[in-house]
Amino acid sequence: MTRTRGQVVQRLEEMLENSGIKFAAVAADIMGVSGRAMLEALISGERDPQVLADLARRELRIKIPELTEALTGRFREHHDFVARLHLDQYDQLTDAIEQLDGRIEVAMSPFRLVLDPFDTIPGINQKVA
User: Fold this and answer.
1) Which CB contacts under 8 angstroms, 24+ apart, belong to 123-129?
2) Whole domain around residue 62: which residue ranges?
3) Which end of the chain is more exposed for a tag (fewer CB within 10 A), N or C?
4) E-strand stretches of the chain
5) What is the C-alpha separation between 77 and 114, in angstroms, rounded?
């Protein structure tokens, strides 16, 4: 599911690039808080690159001039529709992954005393342990 979710993001990035939106060239994570806000605004009909770029948060705010240029494209109603499908699929997969993580956590609880010390070793985390 994690791999499939990554593929959904890649398809979304490709669709954006085909519409002239080069957001992924400026932002490392198009599904982060800023990216998601900009995508939702695009889908809702906002086309002004300056307004979209102004939705940037935190470190991305220093890249507003680059964002403005990257968000200038030919995003049309068809793109709205396809982008919404991709975002909905991404959200469904994220929800399923969270449910599975919770289920795995429950299944691993009897082994917590053995696994927790591994988490203190650099390079080892809960999932690796």
Assistant:
1) none
2) 2-120
3) N
4) none
5) 54
